Amino acid sequence: MLRLAMTTDAETFDRVREPLADRGVAVEHVQAKERSLRVAGGEGDGGQSGIEGDGAEAFDGFDVGFVYPSRLMEGAVVDARLSVPWVNGRDAVLASRNKAGALAALDDAGLPTPRTTLVSNPVDEAVVTEAVSSFSYPVVVKPNSATRGVGVATAGDLDSLLGVVDYLNLVHDYRATGDKSYLIQEFLPDARDYRAMVVDGAYAGAVRRELPADARERGRWKHNVHRGAEATGVDLPERARELAERTADVLGIDYLGVDLLETDDRLVVNETNARPTVDAATKYEPGFYDRLAGLVERTAAGEN
Predict the structure, then answer these.
(1) Model's pTM, two decimal places?
(2) Separation CA 59–CA 50 (nearest Å)
(3) 3-state class of 117 per DSSP?
């Protein structure tokens, strides 16, 4: 039985553990953050791998990892200790996390995306004003590398936009802030929000994410599950399935969540996620776990 190291113990871990075990993959949690991690052994220690701290567990004996840790600094240590191939390694996580980079690659490949401009701080207000000159208000402002809808806002006019940017400038002024960029993006009102899953190059199911009616009536518009939206399994049309598959192919990512926005006349890729949460199996295609187990096995064998 293959031993798979998973660095999250949240919903995905609980949901995939039993189905993968039924397919010959033992899923075990390896804690990668909020603990101490031994980086190097002392003289004569032979460089033995290991960690220190409460709940310490051995890093030896794993065949494959899923997915590279979300905190890249800790991830480098965990990666060295495990010494296994990853379903979505560091490069895949970085490629997806860089929203602007992913959208630029997709746009270059001819895939539909929202109109988007990257702003790299520090810049003068004149640069922001020029950057938004081709947009219609309202616009969306979002950090380039945040997740779960954190920091995403809309601005209805230039003064409001510059006010949001003022707050971003305060954050970016802190020397330790690594990513000092943000996106200005067109707002697609009343767009339907889908998360399509692609596993090993093939569409594997999708959910529609939607806020409850009372939340929408109060003016909320971000359909993130972590912000209270509900995820309902849907049967996407062929063009949406193909768009999700092409997105994964362009980015070269084996296991990918593709966020699609659909209006009455447009279907676009809004974002991607190389560490997507797995939802209930009933919301995916019947062969979802067979395909996922196959991807794990091929990755362990060095075939991906």
Answers:
(1) 0.88
(2) 6
(3) strand
Question: How many Cβ atoms are within 10 Å of 209's Cβ, its own excluded?
Answer: 20
Return d(Cα 247, Cα 198) in angstroms, integer: 9
Highest mean pLDDT among 40-44, 206-210, 240-244, 284-288: 240-244
Residue ranges of alpha helices (H) inside the chain are 11-21, 72-82, 90-97, 99-108, 125-131, 158-172, 213-217, 238-251, 288-300
CATH number of 2-88: 3.40.50.20
* Residue ranges per structural domain of the chain: 2-88, 115-186, 192-300
> In whole angstroms, what is the distance from residue 99 CA to residue 277 CA?
18
Q: Over the stretch 223-277, which tens digit does the pLDDT of each residue have?
A: 555 555 678 899 999 999 999 999 999 999 999 999 999 999 999 999 999 999 8
Q: Return the half-sphere exposure (C-beta side, CA atoms, 13 A cut-off) of residue 67.
A: 26
CB atoms within 10 A of CB 34: 8
Of the given ranges (61-70, 104-113, 198-207, 220-229), which has the lowest mean pLDDT?
220-229
Beta bridge partners of 260: 194, 269
Residue 17 to residue 209: CA distance in whole angstroms: 24
What is the separation of C-alpha 251 from the centre of its chain, rounded to a whole number of angstroms? 13
C-alpha to C-alpha distance for 261 and 50, rounded to whole angstroms? 44
What CATH fold (topology level) applies to the domain 115-186? Dna Ligase; domain 1 (3.30.1490)
Superfamily of domain 192-300: ATP-grasp fold, B domain (3.30.470.20)
**For tokens 């190291």, what's the residue?**
5
**pLDDT tens across 95-131, in order?**
999 999 999 999 999 999 999 999 999 999 999 999 9
Instruction: At 140, list the tokens.
Output: 């969306």
